[in-house]
Specification:
The protein has 860 residues and is an alpha+beta fold. It contains 23 helices and 28 strands. Among the domains are: 111 residues, 2-Layer Sandwich (Beta-Lactamase); 107 residues, PAS domain (Beta-Lactamase), CATH 3.30.450; 170 residues, Histidine kinase-like ATPase, C-terminal domain (Heat Shock Protein 90, 2-Layer Sandwich), CATH 3.30.565; 120 residues, Rossmann fold (3-Layer(aba) Sandwich).
Length: 860
């Protein structure tokens, strides 16, 4: 912005604050006065116009009455008498200049006064009626040579009397009526022909003024006031129509005569104000120069000395105004503060210099305009192994030291910083002069000026070689740990698979043997063996659960279930065991517990089975009680907290081993002489399942008196839609028809067990050893369904299923139901088998009930 002097500033403020408002006030006053004068003139003109219009109407009316009266007094035509009557009439009505008597055809019979020159009246006869009226426009009288208007009336005998109404006398009459100084009076006909005008010569010459604006704009019988221009002069006038005629009356006055009396004083006042203003401005300019400009000049000199670093003040004796004295005092204080601040900045810069020159990281500053390194800390030499001077001379040496495999990404990052202001945070390798490699982490940021333009780049580079080595070691250790965990999971899974395969043969044979004719002792042996096999199966399931939990692959399947049915199932399962030990087993559910909830029924059943099973296992006498109730705490909308309490009067748990019993593969009694057998997995699985379900478990135990375990689970409340989807229980279950079933199993014992079980159920079973043979036999023979093992030689179950579903050779059996019958029992296994095209899944060992349920599901 351009600077202005104090004089210009004062003149501008005086002009803006005094002169312009004063002129505007005068102009407004003048405009208001002109407006008031216009209104007054218009009002006065309106009164005069109406008044004079009435006089003209009365003048014409009197003339018509007089002419009418004359027409009634003429009863005969006698030249002497007739001349006497007309002469008396003209003496009585001097505004008539002449009377003319005509016959019915317009022939002049007599005139008064008599004249030698006669004019034909034929052109006026058609306008004459039995009522006195104007029958001509303004016309020159042939007798008097004056401007007249003819009035005529037809007598009863058909003759006509016409009178010449003198316009000059009308002019004189109107001038006498118009007050002096009120303007000029103009009378015209409807076409603008002059009837009366102050310049009567214009009336005689019959000048037409109908083209004036005020005449063209006048459209009705009311008054109309406006400005108009005539012969280069502006007038202000009022026009009106004269009653009972088509004449127009105009009273006007030149504009200068209307407004000059009020404009002249205003112009004089404006001139006086301008003169006073310029005198005052000149005087004020002189005073400002002496009292303000000179002290300010000295003060400016002091500021310039301060800007150059000279904080001394010249000893001046000028008298200054109080405001400047305050400013000078404040400026002195500011100079002192600046001096102190400069000292602080110098000290801060010194501390910063000491800091950046002693830190291990390399600090640098780069100018964006010319890509020049302004500063780099000494640590650069230790990290890069190169001198700072080499970087000052060639800034690109920073990037030339970077390993060529890492150089391009670093260059791209710094170009983005230079061009777009993107922050840099890069890790890369540099090659030292001795060939060694170091890892560097460089961070850089843009610096902007006050206008938002990038002017510099600053950055820090640090040696992270040691940190990188530690990170690499930690990453390797983590990978080793994950590999070990994966190996353990795979081992447990494989062990489960290898154990389930022979166990399936054992349980299958035992179930088949149980259905043969046995004596009581043999039946007892078989039941004992089946029971032991189921215990072994539970151990295998516990091992799988531990593997799933540790691998983070345990999945919860929330669905609608009845907690009352879960409690009843547990009661029926353990009722026989407790009765055999003379233990009282009781279970109850508080009335407030909802009949249906949303949760993983299988896992809830597993938790309660493990806890109730532990109570049955470690209680020899007394009671076992399982209780379910609703807690009043509601953590989120649409959920409910359920508390399960399992209490017994068993051996109890020592206080110091309560937390220990929740560890996997541990027991309270770990000696070789322990009384109660088990793997030690039960409570560990229970705690893991409870935590997976966002619940909590608490133990209250007293050695020798019993144990109470509290399990709190957060379960969902079913919606109306979920309740409507609750499956109905079929009272009648139809029996399956005999089926032809293909069993694909590589283990001979399992082949025998499964095929015999299917035969016992009334079905025909055909066994093959691998997937390839299954594909071949399906091309030749027809089957209702297939039980497919997964792990087999030549072609496994998954590959065989994909081939059956997709191959063109298998179109006829591509929709054949296939059930996975396998020792792979992980949750993701079932999902994988169904995704490849299998219809159902059964894990080994298999029972009659499982086979029956699977066949019903796939054959419905």
């Amino acid at each position: 912005m351009a600077a202005i002097s104090l004089r210009q500033l004062v003149q501008r403020n005086l002009t803006n604050l005094m002169l312009i408002p004063s002129i505007c006030l005068i102009l407004l006053l003048g405009a208001y006065t002109i407006y008031e004068k216009s209104q007054s003139f218009e009002t006065k003109n309106a009164v005069l116009t109406q008044s004079l219009g009435k006089h003209i109407s009365a003048h014409l009316h009197d003339s018509k009455i007089a002419l009418t009266s004359l027409s009634t007094s003429i009863t005969r035509y006698d030249p002497f008498w007739f001349h006497w009557v007309l002469s008396n009439f003209l003496q009585a009505y001097p505004h008539f200049e002449r009377l003319i008597y005509l016959d019915a055809n317009g022939k002049i019979l007599a005139t008064s006064p008599q004249g030698n020159e006669l004019v034909s009246m034929e052109r006026f006869i058609d306008k004459v009626s039995n009522q006195a009226s104007i029958v001509s426009d303004p016309i020159i009288s042939p007798a008097t040579q004056n401007l007249v208007v003819y009035l005529g009336i037809r007598l009863p005998n058909g003759s006509i009397i016409i009178g010449e109404l003198s316009l000059s006398k009308l002019q004189t009459h109107l001038e006498n009526l118009l007050p002096k100084g009120e303007g000029i009076l103009i009378l015209t006909d409807s076409y603008g022909n002059l009837i009366s005008h102050p310049d009567f010569h214009r009336v005689i010459t019959q000048e037409n003024i109908g083209n004036l604006d005020i005449f063209t704009e006048f459209t009705d019988d009311s008054l109309y006031t406006n400005f108009y221009k005539e012969e280069g002069i502006y007038h202000f006038g009022t026009i009106a129509k004269v009653a009972q005629t088509d004449w127009l009356l105009l009273i006007s006055k030149p504009v200068r005569e209307v407004f000059l009396p009020i404009i002249s004083p205003l112009l004089i006042l404006l001139s006086v104000i301008l003169l006073l203003f310029f005198m005052f401005a000149h005087f004020l300019q002189h005073r400002l120069r002496e009292s303000i400009v000179r002290p300010l000049a000295h003060f400016t000199e002091s500021i310039e000395m301060t800007a150059k670093g000279d904080y001394s003040r010249p000893d001046l004796h000028d008298e200054v105004f109080s405001e400047l004295a305050i400013i000078e005092q404040e400026f002195d204080d500011m100079v002192k503060q600046v001096n102190i601040r400069e000292q602080e900045i110098k000290e801060s810069e010194e501390r910063f210099r000491q800091l950046v020159e002693n830190i291990h990281e390399a600090y640098w500053i780069n100018d964006v305009a010319d890509n020049r390194v302004i500063y780099v800390s000494p640590s650069y030499e230790m990290i890069w192994g190169r001198t700072r001077e080499s970087l000052y001379e060639n800034p690109e040496s920073f990037f030339l030291a970077i390993d060529k495999d890492d150089r391009l990404p670093v260059l791209d990052a710094f170009n983005s910083l230079r061009n777009e202001g993107m922050i840099v945070d890069q890790e890369f390798r540099i090659i030292m002069p001795d060939g060694k490699i170091r890892w560097i982490r460089a961070q850089a940021f843009p610096v902007y000026d006050d206008e938002g333009v990038r002017v510099r780049m600053v950055g820090v580079a640090e040696d992270i070689t040691e940190r990188k080595a530690i990170s690499t070691a930690l990453m390797k250790a983590k990978q080793d740990a994950e590999t070990a965990s994966q190996a353990k999971t795979e081992f447990l899974t494989n062990m489960s698979h290898e154990l389930r395969t022979p166990l399936n043969g054992i349980l299958g044979m035992l179930q088949l043997t149980r259905d043969t004719k046995l004596n009581v002792e043999q039946a007892d042996y078989i039941e004992t063996a089946i029971s032991s096999s189921k215990v072994l199966l539970n151990v295998i399931n516990d091992i799988l659960n531990i593997a799933q939990i540790e691998a983070g692959k345990l999945a919860l399947h929330e669905q609608l279930f009845s907690p009352h049915e879960v409690m009843e199932t547990i009661f029926r399962f353990f009722k026989h065991s407790t009765e055999s030990k003379n233990i009282e087993l009781s279970m109850d559910v508080e009335p407030g517990l909802p009949p249906f909830l949303i949760g993983d029924e299988v896992r809830i059943r597993q938790i309660l089975f493990n806890l109730a099973g532990n109570s049955v296992k470690f209680t020899d006498e007394g009671t076992i009680h399982v209780h379910a109730q609703t807690l009043p705490i509601q953590k989120k909308t649409g959920s409910i907290n359920i508390l399960f309490t399992i209490s017994d009067t068993g051996i109890g748990i020592p206080a110091e081993k309560i937390n220990y019993v929740f560890e996997s593969f541990t027991q309270v009694d770990g000696t070789y002489t322990r009384r109660y057998q088990g793997t030690g997995l039960g409570l560990g699985i229970v705690r893991s399942l409870v935590e997976y379900m966002n619940g909590s478990i608490t133990v209250d135990s007293d050695t020798g008196k019993g144990t109470t375990i509290y399990v709190s689970l957060q379960l969902g409340l079913p919606t109306r839609e979920q309740m409507s989807e609750k499956p109905e229980i079929d009272v009648f279950e139809p029996q399956l028809r005999p089926l032809d079933i293909l069993v694909v199993e590589d283990d001979r014992v399992n082949q025998i067990a499964i095929s015999r079980m299917l035969q016992k159920m009334g079905h025909a079973a055909t066994c093959v050893n691998d997937g390839q043979k299954a594909v071949d036999i399906l091309k030749e023979e027809k089957f209702d369904c297939v039980f497919m093992d997964i792990q087999m030689p030549i072609m496994d179950g998954i590959e065989a299923t994909k081939y059956i579903r997709t191959s063109n050779d298998m179109i006829n059996v591509s929709k054949l139901p296939i059930v996975a019958l396998t020792a792979h029992a992980m949750p993701e296994d079932r999902k994988n088998f169904l995704e490849v095209g299998m219809n159902d899944y059964i894990s080994k060992p298999v029972s009659f009930e499982q086979l029956t349920s699977a066949l019903k599901r796939i054959m419905d």
